[in-house]
């Protein structure tokens, strides 16, 4: 058997098989994630399903569904990418561009939906075979067209140059595959992807529907597909439906009538028959692999995969087992992977044909764990669970020798790694011992050389101490410079304050000038108002004189009336004056009265005029008073502003004194710096002279150093040779 396996190993050691293995291995974390999500959503436990029916459970179910869509549902794309990457790497092509070409080419042939999208059914495990073929073809085309490069300047970025170099090969590769798909689709109505799927299905379409031979042929086909990484169940699903899709429904109807699961009229083969008694733990009866590993394997890697995949295998999910060991494309596990499901199919069919085991009469969820599923599927008969135990035992016996052989190889690899580690340690120990030995040989010479160098070291220590003092002096100079910077900053700040005060003084001066100007205008207005008052007073004086004249006329009239009144009285009493004379007297009196009335009227007019003038004088006086008050306030403001001007000028003087003071300090610090510079210059002159002497002494002793370095180089060469020998041993 070992010779057969070695031949199989050689057959499987080509670039395509190796790249496919790497592609499936690297996608294992995503496969595990999708398996966990699918397991949680499909776990046939009432408590779990009830929990997933709650609002929080619905969220978990939706999250798991999204995870499944991002992992298992797009398995074909993941494999196309990783296979293109690793296969391109074997040809020394740009791996990332090779992977992109593979994915783009595969998507260009996928079946489209009615709205122009890509069918999800071809992106999952059912499309793996097509994805593998297209990825290989796209990478080969990319390699064939890789000589068609667009060369650009070397100064361009590396990524841009790689893009232009791969532009034509990538475009031609995808175009050729898409063009082929378009021609096939136009000619036949089916694309390349559909023809691949149809061709795979046609290989097993002639199976004897529902019979034992046809069932064995279907089981064999499912596992052949799985061996090459293709989901055989999905590929063969349509064939299984056409072969015995109605058998389980017939059994359920008959069992509902007679309640006899041993009835010979019931069909033996059904999809539930395969799920319950053949695919225990998944394709290849993978639960047997897990148990066989725990029984016989000692490899850390195999037991680790078994522990990880065992839980999932209990619920008939075996992706971790298939891709982890791996079973896929493994020449060692090919025989038991095909033989075990065929064997348990024959055992199960024979037991039911002989009436030893009840037939499948109930539909059981595919994720139901073995033993429980056998009991439920047969209508509650223990014979179903017993048959499952027998099938598992038979599968374990078939797998054990192959698992032993696989474990032996895994142990050899692990042991080889451990031996390599031990060999490396021994080699390194030898190198260390050799170094110690060589070091002992030259230890004496190194001691002599150290004595020779002792005096040099002492001289250098003295020089170092002097240099440290000089460094301290330089630190002092640095502190002085920082002080100067601070003083200059203070001076600059003082100057800025002076400038600000000068600007403020200028503003205040302008404001004071404006206020004084306004005060002068107020004074002029007050003067004009006083002039108007004088004019009004003159007019009032003139009118008073007129009133005096009028009063004098009234006084004259009064005197004349007084003089006429006695005469009239005498004339009346003494003589009998005629009525005419009395009339004359009366007329005079009347004239006087009229004159008096006119004078009175004039006086009233004059008085009214005086009243109006007086009112004007009062108003002008009020205006003059307000203007005088405004002028007084402006004068007060001007006085205050000029007071601020005086204070600002005082501040300017103080700032100027501060600036002068800082200037004096700066001059003092500058003098100190000059002294330090002079001292440093003197010291450096002495140091240069001393260093020259030391250099001459070291030059005289350089010959001894050269001989010592020659011996050290020899030791280094010997150490390098030992190290190379160690690595050669590790590689061998």
Description:
The protein has 732 residues and is an all-alpha fold. Helix content is 82%, strand content 0%. It is built from 23 helices and no strands. It has helices at residues 2-12, 15-26, 28-42, 46-53, 55-69, 75-90, 95-109, 128-144, 158-188, 192-202, 212-227, 232-235, 237-244, 247-258, 271-277, 286-296, 300-314, 319-324, 334-353, 372-377, 382-574, 579-700, 702-731. The longest helix has 193 residues, at 382-574. The chain is elongated and about 190 Å long. The two termini are 27 Å apart. The model has no long low-confidence stretch (mean pLDDT 75).
Task: List its traits.
elongated, 0% strand, mainly alpha, 732 residues
Residue runs with pLDDT of under 50 for 5 or more positions: none
Please bin the fraction of helical residues: over 70%
How large is the radius of gyration? Answer: 61 Å
Strand content: under 5%
- According to DSSP, the number of beta strands is 0
SS class: mainly alpha
Mean pLDDT: 75
- Label the overall shape: elongated
Termini gap? 27 Å
Q: Main sheet?
A: none
Total DSSP helices: 23
Spell out the helices and strands N to C.
HHHHHHHHHHHHHHHHHHHHHHH
């Amino acid at each position: 058997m070992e010779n057969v396996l070695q031949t199989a190993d050689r057959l499987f050691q080509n670039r395509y098989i190796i790249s496919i293995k790497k592609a499936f291995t690297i996608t294992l974390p995503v496969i595990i994630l999708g398996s966990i999500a699918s397991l949680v959503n499909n776990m046939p436990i009432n408590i779990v399903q009830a929990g997933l029916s709650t609002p929080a459970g619905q969220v978990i179910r939706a999250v798991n569904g999204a995870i499944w869509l991002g992992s298992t549902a797009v398995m074909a794309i993941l494999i196309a990418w990783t296979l293109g990457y690793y296969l391109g790497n074997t040809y020394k092509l740009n791996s990332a561009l090779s992977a992109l070409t593979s994915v783009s080419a595969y998507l260009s042939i996928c079946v489209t939906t009615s709205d122009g999208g890509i069918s999800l059914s071809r992106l999952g495990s059912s499309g793996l075979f097509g994805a593998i073929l297209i990825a290989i073809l796209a990478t080969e085309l990319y390699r064939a067209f890789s000589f068609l490069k667009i060369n650009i300047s070397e100064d361009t970025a590396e990524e841009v140059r790689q893009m232009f170099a791969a532009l034509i090969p990538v475009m031609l590769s995808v175009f050729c595959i898409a063009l082929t798909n378009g021609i096939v689709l136009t000619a036949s109505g089916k694309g390349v992807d559909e023809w691949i799927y149809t061709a795979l299905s046609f290989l097993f379409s002639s199976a004897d529907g529902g019979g034992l031979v046809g069932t064995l042929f279907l089981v064999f086909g499912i596992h052949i597909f799985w061996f090459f990484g293709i989901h055989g169940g999905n590929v063969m699903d349509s064939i299984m439906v056409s072969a015995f899709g109605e058998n389980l429904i017939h059994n359920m109807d008959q069992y509902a009538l007679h309640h006899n699961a041993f009835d010979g009229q019931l069909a033996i083969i059904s999809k539930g028959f395969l799920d319950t008694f053949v695919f225990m733990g998944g394709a290849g009866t993978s639960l047997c692999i897990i148990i066989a590993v725990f029984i016989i394997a000692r490899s850390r890697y195999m037991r680790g995969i078994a522990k990880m995949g065992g839980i999932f295998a209990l619920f008939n999910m075996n992706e971790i087992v298939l891709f982890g060991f791996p079973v896929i494309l493994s020449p060692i596990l090919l025989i038991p992977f095909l033989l075990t499901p065929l064997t348990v199919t024959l055992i199960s069919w024979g037991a039911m044909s002989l009436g030893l085991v009840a037939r499948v009469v109930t539909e059981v969820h595919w994720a139901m764990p073995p033993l429980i599923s056998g009991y439920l599927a047969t209508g509650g008969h223990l014979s179903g669970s017993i048959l499952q135990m027998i099938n598992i035992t038979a599968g374990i016996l078939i797998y054990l020798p192959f698992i032993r052989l696989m474990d032996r190889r895994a142990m050899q690899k692990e042991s080889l790694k451990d031996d390599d580690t031990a060999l490396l340690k021994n080699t390194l120990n030898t190198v260390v011992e050799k170094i110690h030995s060589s070091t002992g040989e030259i230890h004496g010479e190194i001691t002599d050389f150290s004595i020779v160098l002792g005096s040099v070291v002492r001289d250098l220590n003295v020089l170092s101490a002097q240099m440290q003092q000089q460094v301290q002096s330089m630190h002092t100079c640095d502190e002085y410079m920082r002080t100067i910077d601070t003083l200059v900053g203070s001076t600059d700040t003082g100057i800025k304050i002076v400038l600000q005060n000068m600007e403020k003084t200028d503003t205040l001066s302008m404001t004071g000038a404006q206020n004084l100007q306004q005060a002068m205008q107020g004074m002029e207005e007050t003067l004009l108002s006083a002039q108007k008052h004088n004019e009004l007073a003159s007019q009032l004086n003139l009118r008073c004189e007129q009133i005096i004249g009028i009063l004098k006329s009234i006084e004259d009239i009064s005197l004349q009336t007084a003089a006429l009144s006695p005469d009239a009285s005498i004339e009346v009493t003494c003589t009998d004056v005629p009525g005419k004379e009395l009339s004359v007297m009366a007329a005079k009196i009347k004239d006087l009265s009229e004159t008096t009335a006119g004078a009175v009227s004039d006086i009233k007019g004059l008085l009214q005029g005086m009243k109006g003038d007086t009112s004007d004088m009062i108003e002008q006086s009020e205006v003059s008073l307000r203007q005088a008050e405004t002028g007084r306030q402006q004068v007060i403001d001007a006085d205050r502003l000029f007071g601020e001007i005086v204070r600002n000028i005082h501040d300017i003087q103080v700032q100027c004194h501060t600036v002068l003071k800082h200037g004096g300090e700066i001059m003092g610090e500058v003098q100190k710096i000059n002294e330090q510079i002079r001292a440093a210059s003197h010291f450096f002159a002495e140091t240069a002279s001393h260093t020259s002497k030391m250099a001459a002494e070291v030059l005289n002793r350089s010959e001894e150093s050269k001989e010592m370095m020659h011996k050290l180089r020899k030791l280094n060469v010997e150490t390098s040779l030992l190290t190379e020998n160690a690595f050669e041993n590790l590689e061998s």
